[in-house]
UniProtKB/TrEMBL annotation:
Residues 258-321 form the YdbS-like PH domain. It comes from the Bacteria. Keywords: Membrane, Transmembrane, Transmembrane helix. The keyword Membrane applies. InterPro entries: YdbS-like_PH (IPR005182). The chain crosses the membrane at residues 12-33, 57-82, 200-216. This is YdbS-like PH domain-containing protein.
Length: 335
């Protein structure tokens, strides 16, 4: 195992599996017990544990439970990281094949032909980005469906962003990291920010607030105070996340590559070979039509098979698509 990967272990807890892994493990155990007909919730130790938890001081027991979950999740994430990425080697084994070899208990080796490599994606999930890390994903054909392509196309685990930039550039056979380091991307209209704020308010703020208000009127006034406190905190959170998502939006062209960046929970920067784009789809919503926003989707025979550039200016989107892949939209453009 390369010495560098031991230093990268600090990025393992900054992933979904810290909490999600615990949920998956608990769910698997409960499903097995249910399949065996075991009524685990009736067991004496389980009932005693629930009673003790309910009778204890919650401001002590709840943080203690959260710490226990995070500790278990972190240990699990570290174990998965080592098992999946032990002995990592990502290299061009010859001029035509990019090879990724990794694994401790099970050695995995994936060869990606150069002709099937459509591009590279730099992924920066929120926690990993806060810690200065990133992962690298190959966009290639012949790796299976979207889920299999994501698993088999992984070129680098959570690692320092500088390392991820070098791996992404190496996969593109470039001597520099210019497509990713500070890409010159066109920003998106401010209406895209407003759309994200509205969506967050409608989905994350309004339903819980209405529910708490209704329960407060029917049950106890305490829930009325919970409603306004939740509304205040959630509204600020939605605004901050929407602003970050809007700042992440961008698109552009860099030589033979189309560049697009989007996302806040996972900010993804994609460098896609322009000559591999098979078709374009332009979609919009009622809000988008009113405010001049269009989402472009590039159809590619690889990876997810479609890569979105969300919320472009409606007047610029067709021209950008035509410039990125000449000939596809020519018959639809008004000269």
């Amino acid at each position: 195992m390369p010495a560098a990967i031991w230093r990268w272990l600090r990025y393992a807890p900054l992933t979904f599996w810290v909490i999600g892994g615990v949920g998956v493990a608990v769910g698997t155990v409960l499903r097995v017990l249910d399949g065996a007909g075991v009524e685990w919730w009736k067991a004496g130790p389980v009932r005693a544990g629930f009673e003790e938890f309910g009778q204890s001081v919650l401001w002590v027991t709840v943080p203690a439970l959260l710490i226990a979950v995070l500790t278990a999740g972190s240990l699990g994430a570290l174990a998965l990281y080592v098992e999946n990425w032990w002995g990592l080697r990502t290299e061009w084994s010859d001029d035509r094949t990019l090879t990724v070899r990794r694994g401790l208990l099970t050695t995995r080796s994936v060869g990606i032909e150069r002709d099937r490599l459509r591009g590279v994606m730099l992924r920066e999930p929120l926690l990993l980005r806060a810690g200065g890390g990133a992962t690298v994903q190959a966009v290639a054909g012949g790796l299976g469906d979207a889920e299999e392509a994501q698993r088999r196309g992984s070129l680098l685990p959570p690692a320092p962003r500088a390392t991820a930039l070098r791996v992404a550039a190496g996969a593109l056979r470039r001597s520099d990291t210019s497509p990713f380091r500070q890409p010159s991307l066109t920003t998106h209209p401010r209406a895209a920010l407003h759309q994200r704020v509205r969506r967050g308010l409608y989905l994350a703020v309004l339903p819980p607030v209405v529910t708490l208000l209704a329960l407060g009127v029917l049950l106890t006034p305490v829930l009325l105070h919970c409603a306004w406190m939740y509304a205040a905190v959630a509204t600020v959170t939605v605004w901050l996340l929407a602003r970050d998502a809007h700042r992440s939006l961008g698109h552009g062209l860099s030589g033979p590559y189309l560049l697009t960046r989007s996302g806040t929970f996972s900010r993804d920067t994609l460098a896609l070979r322009r000559d591999t784009i098979a078709a374009w789809t332009l979609t919009t919503s009622p809000y988008g039509r009113r405010h001049g926003l269009v989402t472009l989707t590039a159809a590619v025979a690889a990876g997810r098979h479609g890569y979105r550039i969300p919320d472009l200016d409606a007047g610029e989107a067709p021209a950008f698509a035509a410039a990125a892949s000449p000939g596809i939209l020519d018959e639809w453009l008004v000269r």
